[in-house]
Amino acid sequence: MRRTTSHRWMAALLLLSMALLMSASSDSTGQRFDKLGHNLMCSCGCNQVLLECNHVGCSVSEQMRKELKGALAKGGSDKEILAGFVTEYGPTVLAAPTTTGFNRVAWLMPVVIFLAALTAVVLVVRAWKRRAPKEPPSGGDAGGDGSGGMDDFRRRAREETSL
Amino acid sequence: MTPDLHAPLNMPQIGSFTLLLGLALSAYAFGAGLYAILRSDDRLGETARRAGIAVFAAVTAASAILVYAAFSNDFSVAYIMHHSNRALPGAYKFAALWSGQEGSLLFWCWLLACYGLVLRLRHKVDTRLVAHASVVLSAVQIFFLVLVNFVACPFAMNIGAIPADGNGLNPLLQYPEMVIHPPMLYLGYVGMTVPFAFALAALIMRYPGEKWIHITRRWTMVGWMFLTCGIFLGSYWAYRVLGWGGWWGWDPVENASLLPWLTGTAFLHSVMMQEKRGMMKVWNMWLIFSTFLLAIFGTFLTRSGVVSSVHAFAESNIGPYFVVFLAIIFAACLFFFLKNRSHLESEHKLESLVSRESSFLFNNVLLLVAAFAVLWGTLFPVLSEWVTGHKVTVGPPFFNKVNIPIALFLLLLTAVGPLLAWRKTSAESLRKNFLIPAIIALAVGVVLVGMGIHPWQEVDYFYSLMTIMLSVLVAATIGSEFLRGGLVIARHNNTNILNGMWTLTRRNTRRYGGYIVHLGVVMSMIGFAGAAFYQNTEQELGFGDKMMIGGYTLVCKSYTQDDKPNYSSESAILDIYKGGKQIDTMYPEQRFYKASGQPATIVANRSTVMEDLYLVYTGKNPDTGRPIIKAHLNPLVWWIWSGAHFILVGTIVALCPNMHAVKKKVEAMVTAPARTVTGVAPVETGGD
User: Fold this and answer.
1) Which of B392, B458, B687 is opposite residue A92, by nearest beta carbon?
2) If you placed Cys at A141, which of B243, B281, B421, B595 could pair as Cys (CB 3.0 to 4.6 Å)?
3) Is A94 helix (H, G, I), strand (E, B) or coil?
4) Which residues have a Cβ under 8 Å from the Cβ of B433 and sit 6 or more positions away?
């Protein structure tokens, strides 16, 4: 019972911190320019993020930055500004896939693989634990290999811990 | 027109001939080596070994001839015309060897021949195993020599009139770091061939015992060390040269270097389970195979033009050859694995989730998921275009969002893993080992929040805070390990604690070298965490104008111009003030390279432990004619490069034999001098 209550408290704490994280953004125009500029690609063909295009005298990135500043001055939301850039420059202007349509797969796949791998490891470890023969305890932090017999283990332990 | 058969051979022709000779010798080393193994013919095997050594001589001659062609401005060779010019400084003429597709493939061949030479000269370590590995190595060598002989020949001649001067080297490559970065990276990539060769050889011959895994681990560590150096040098070059203020752009070429690094790192951890407990044999075998396959895949990715990259080499027809080679290698690995998999059965099973073994398992899972995420993100644009018909960009926002949480989990494991016991760890032991480090990490977190890093304001701040806290936790656990061991030895030997820690490290170089590597990793992570707090500003600066960033004031003192044979340049002279005092003068510069007609920036950087003041001369405003200066304030960057030094030192320490192993070897040589003639059985340098 006590354990369930503590779990609830922990969950509430987690949700609260998540909510704080999600709600925390009262960006200034400068911060928004920086944030959006790092979510757009320069269209000059350099394959670099808009604010990181290092082409000396690149007229494309200069023009795009001006457009971004203009859009921010007009007061559109982040979503609207990014949509405007997609309309003008095509979907490759976005520095990351959107979370719609087939693009969702890009975001989901690493999570799916991570969870699947984690589950597989836990299952494998449990299966191994069940099948593992009971060996005498190792008796401390140093381990033995067991296969070569205790003599071999003792010799190695002596070598590794001797002064 | 009838060719003049009496005309003397010129150097490029001799170069082509040596490459053909190298191919023939490799083919002999492969064929004769294989036949000798099948027939147990030692004499034939010896000729194959010597042919393998001769490949080194042939490829070295070819490489030397290409370098000679660059130094002698032989623009009849197309490669030299495209990658060099008369005014190019000597160091960059040398670097032209690996600056283009054909030359870099030749360089790859040469490095592989170097590794092959070392392997074949050290054949007495285990003649049968080396004979098998040598055949595998020859097969890889044949592939690359076929490429440089018939697909991308570095000695191809210019058609038509020989130009008076060459096109010059890409300006972005004309930096000292660029002279060292590619060789390091290639040493890493090519170095992964040797552990692959040993692993496949051991599988093919159902090698009895664990000696092959010790050899494979050492060679992997060598390759991993070079790959790490290459990655950090590339990152340093991007930071100091490209002028965008960052050090990692998640470009496909960068990602390609990260893939084998991640799987190689996973192997270097999980191999301990095989050495200590006879576990994870199948897993380790495939990790080594994957590391090599990813090194080749990375090469394919960057040279085939399959994905868009800011790096060179794209737009070539070489891709299909790599696909075929990858398919053959994978098929060979799979065939021998299925044939001999019974040889790889584990001797032990895992007993507890809270143990060193399970921490390695989770570490491996995280590293492989990170590798998958990087590969997935790199290839997703191709997949998206194939499925939907539309290409998308997968850039830094994707990679950062996916990989930062994984990196944080890995940091946590780096803190916890090394202090867990093999087989099973008690809760009491965990509490004892982690209480003080955890308190230190939490205290640092509280101080940072007090200093204004509010994790609830920005996700980036949250990640930075977590990274720094976990890094401190790792450093504290490592520090406590060194302190505890050092104190015991200091008391016993009646010496000071530093001497105690030095002796401790020498007694178990692998374990404590590994700790130093971990320390380097956390230092670099602290540097990465600083990225959340960067600032930048851009301004036109006339004489006497001021510019502010962070606590710095930049005052434009003057501008200067210069004209050199290779380039002309313009630079700003800026006085830097902090707290009202002048602390420095900086010179951001822009160059215009004459041969290629391309401009490039020379960044001025003032690095301190806390932050870098990074200035870029971005050009002139066409309307006002006044120069534009971009200033970045990048916190904690110094830690990234310092961490890299620790990683390098730690790896070298881990590669050194333990003190007791050296003593044993010396004793064996003293007591049995006759055996040294035929070779003393190598003493294994175990450890942790």
Assistant:
1) B392
2) B421
3) strand
4) B419, B477, B480
Tell me whether B688 touches chain A (CB under 8 Å). yes
* Residue the block writes with tokens 């340098």: B685
B506 with B659: CB under 8 angstroms? Answer: yes
Residues B62-82 have pLDDT tens digits of: 999 999 999 999 999 999 999
Chain B contacts in chain A segment 6-65 (CB below 8 A): 17, 20-21, 24-25, 38-39, 41, 46-49, 52-54, 56-57
Q: What pTM was estimated for this model as a whole?
A: 0.86
Q: Give the CATH number of domain B533-639; options: 2.60.98, 2.60.120, 2.50.20, 1.10.530.
A: 2.60.98
- What are the boundaries of each domain within chain A? 25-93, 100-133
pLDDT in tens, B442-498: 999 999 999 888 888 888 899 999 999 999 999 999 998 899 899 999 998 888 999
Pairing type for strands B567-578 and B589-593 reads antiparallel
The C-alpha angle with vertex B683 and arms to B682 and B688, in degrees rounded to 5, equals 135
For residue B658 the two structure tokens come to 């333990």
Which of A20, A121, A156 is opposite residue B361, by nearest beta carbon? Answer: A121
Q: Distance (Å, rounded) from C-alpha A30 to C-alpha B95?
A: 42
**Contacts A103 to B, Cβ<8 Å:** 384, 392
Q: What is the phi-psi region of residue B487: left when phi exceeds 0, alpha when psi lies from -120 to 50, beta otherwise? A: alpha
CB contact under 8 A, A57 and B365: no
- Boundaries of CATH 2.60.98 in chain B? 533-639
DSSP A40: B
**DSSP of B521-549, one letter per residue?**
HHHHHHHHHGGGG-EEEEEE--TT-EEEE
Name residue B537's beta-bridge partners: B631
DSSP B455: T
Q: Is the pLDDT of residue B162 over 70?
A: yes
Distance CA B231, CA B374 (A): 15
- Angstrom CA distances, A69 to A45, A46, A66, stand at 21, 21, 5
Q: Do B421 and A93 touch (CB under 8 A)?
A: no
Strand-strand pairing, B567-578 and B552-563: antiparallel
Radius of gyration of chain A (CA): 28
**Bridge partner residues of B599 (DSSP):** B592
Interface membership of B621 toward A (CB under 8 Å): no
Structure tokens at A154: 């003792």
CB-CB contact of B32 with B131 (8 Å): no
* Dist. CA B174–CA A14, nearest whole Å: 51
CA distances from B299 to A86, B238, B257, B563, B587 (A): 32, 19, 9, 38, 37
Alpha-carbon span A60 to A67, nearest angstrom: 11
First to last CA, chain A: 51
A96 to chain B: nearest residue by CA?
A: B394
CATH of domain A25-93: 1.10.8
Binding-face residues of B in 290-329 toward A, CB within 8 A: 308-310
CB contact under 8 A, B251 and A46: no
